[in-house]
Design a protein that fits this description.
Blueprint (H helix, E strand, L loop, with lengths): L4 E10 L2 E11 L4 E5 L6 H8 L7 E6 L2 E3 L4 H7 L1 E4 L11 H5 L6 E2 L2 E2 L1 H16 L14 H14 L4 E5 L7 H16 L3 E5 L3 H7 L2 E6 L2 E7 L5 H9 L17 E10 L2 E9 L3 E5 L6 H8 L7 E6 L2 E3 L4 H6 L2 E4 L3 H5 L6 H6 L7 E2 L2 E2 L1 H15 L15 H13 L5 E5 L7 H16 L3 E5 L3 H7 L2 E6 L2 E7 L5 H8 L4
Parallel strand pairs: 3-10, 3-11, 6-9, 9-10, 15-22, 15-23, 18-21, 21-22
Antiparallel strand pairs: 1-2, 1-4, 4-5, 7-8, 11-12, 13-14, 13-16, 16-17, 19-20, 23-24
Helix pairs in contact: 4-5, 13-14
């Protein structure tokens, strides 16, 4: 069988970075081909070249037996190469149906036939994805998970010959992931070549036929999934054996630093829990359970409807994020691009934002102190490339997450809330974040971690709070917890 798509000796350079160094790969019809590597390895850059977003500096793309050069992503799409990027490209202000059929709208004469389009969209989402959704509703009113499913639906509808999925399950529940994998298997049987990028190795072993590894912009190798183990893939990715993944040092938590009593707000009600110094309190639950809304209310992003918040035994009123910061609370949000970073600003300016009052010299910002803070962040978190003036827009997802973490840790918070801290991050960066969490807890910081990855919650938490349909279903000691017990609480079965 001949490959439907080949990349040969691809090079791509950005200012100060040689992102791809002579990468060559082949992709075949009816195969799910995983591409893995640490953040900054070049995975997304390669996909953007295949999709026509970037032009290669050297090398060529062979598609259906002939050399091609895309001048615009629309050319790749029209040829049958459809990409679902990790950074969603849906239109929040358009309806669900308009997003699915964008560019292929149902028409009656010269006018769009909205009734038919809504009907077809509802049927398509239900039959192909098992999701019942209002096709007339604005997509922006739905969760990130639903938005991601709609973008994947748009790619499936366009009858792609090559489908590129970049971290497609990062915002999906287990049930939604299972449905997506059914769709992927169906497309595979129809002869579609699927390129699958994921940091979740268990997914790769479940759905993929081959795995290719990139490291520091270089091609390391390709092998069939049956010849590989998780340990072998990790070793190829990081260039060394990762002796310990979940890094958590044992220590005894101290006194209560945060207490929440009967707190109610958008999508949650009457939630009570406490957090101790040096404790990692995991929050588990299905998407939509109210975990993020609860934490954003504690941080002052959202108004509370009732209840009380106590910090170090003293009742506090938090009506704005500045109030939370003054009380020693930091929040690393789930959506780092929208809520955690100012993408057009540099690493230095993003890291220093919450600390401006602390680095002033009189009425002015001290450039020297700001630069020292940025240098500390780059060294402590191994942010790459190590240029303080580099705009975070041009950093990989993992390095962007490190910038978000650094800016809050620069404040030396008493309480740090981490909402999906390892979402879309490679195994090496995950291990590093676990090490940082463990160190923070050891130093007495109270850490709250929201995570949809149960192994992460079970391994890194001291206690696990489980949310179910806007209510706290229970809090269990991590030593007594299991995936089954957590899922039963999350589903409201206990």
């Amino acid at each position: 069988m001949k490959p439907i798509l080949e990349v040969k000796s691809i090079h791509k350079r950005f200012p100060g970075v040689h992102a791809l160094k002579g990468v060559s790969m082949e992709f075949y019809p009816g195969e799910v081909h995983a591409i893995v590597g640490e953040n900054g390895a070049g995975k997304s850059t390669l996909m953007k070249i295949i999709a026509g977003v970037y032009q290669p500096d050297e090398g060529e793309i062979i598609y259906e037996g002939r050399g091609v050069r895309w001048n615009h992503p629309s050319e790749a799409i029209n040829a049958g190469i459809v990409t679902v990027f990790q950074e969603l490209s849906v239109m929040d202000n358009l309806s669900v149906a308009e997003n699915i059929f964008m560019g292929d709208e149902e028409k009656r004469g010269i006018f769009i036939d909205y009734k038919k389009m809504y009907r077809e969209a509802e049927k398509f989402m239900k039959e192909e994805f098992g999701i019942e959704i209002d096709p007339e509703e604005k997509l922006g009113k739905y969760s990130i998970a639903i938005q991601q499913m709609v973008e994947i639906a748009r790619a499936v509808y366009k009858k792609a010959k090559v489908l590129i999925l970049d971290e497609p399950t990062s915002s999906l529940t287990q049930k939604e992931t299972e449905k997506l994998f059914e769709v992927v298997k169906s497309l595979k049987e129809k002869g579609v070549a699927i390129i699958f990028i994921s940091h979740r190795l268990e997914e790769i072993f479940e759905i993929c036929d081959k795995v290719s590894v990139l490291r520091d912009g270089e091609y390391i190798g390709t092998d069939s999934i049956e010849n590989l183990t998780k340990e072998k893939i990790v070793e190829m990715m990081v260039g060394r054996k990762l002796e310990k993944f979940y890094i958590k040092e044992a220590h005894e938590p101290g006194e209560v630093v945060l207490e929440v009593k009967n707190l109610s707000g958008e999508r949650f009600e009457n939630v009570s829990f406490s957090l101790r110094r040096g404790e990692i309190l995991g929050f588990a639950g299905l998407v939509g359970a109210g975990r993020t809304e609860l934490m954003e209310t504690i941080f002052g992003f959202r108004p509370k409807r009732g209840g009380e918040i106590y910090i170090e035994g003293k009742r506090v009123e938090i009506n704005h994020p500045l109030d939370a910061i003054e009380q020693g609370i930091g929040l690393v949000p789930e959506d780092r691009k929208k809520l955690g970073l100012i993408l057009i600003m540099s690493i230095m300016h993003n890291v220093s934002l919450p600390s401006l009052d602390r680095i002033k010299k009189g009425p002015f910002i001290s450039f020297k102190r700001e630069k020292e803070l940025a240098d500390w962040a780059i060294k402590t978190f191994d942010i790459r490339p190590a240029y303080p003036d580099r705009k975070v827009l041009y950093l990989s997802g993992g390095n962007q997450q490190k910038v978000v973490l650094a800016k809050w840790l620069a404040l030396k918070p008493k309480i740090l809330i981490l909402d999906e801290p390892t979402r879309g991050i490679d195994v090496g960066a995950k291990a590093e974040i676990y090490r940082i969490m463990s160190q923070l807890a050891k130093e007495g910081v109270g850490v709250i971690m929201i995570s949809s990855e149960l192994p992460e919650v079970l391994q890194m938490s001291d206690r696990i709070a489980v949310m179910s349909f806007g209510k706290l279903a229970g809090i269990i000691d991590a030593k007594e917890a299991s995936q089954e017990k957590v899922m039963k609480l999350a589903a409201g079965l206990e």
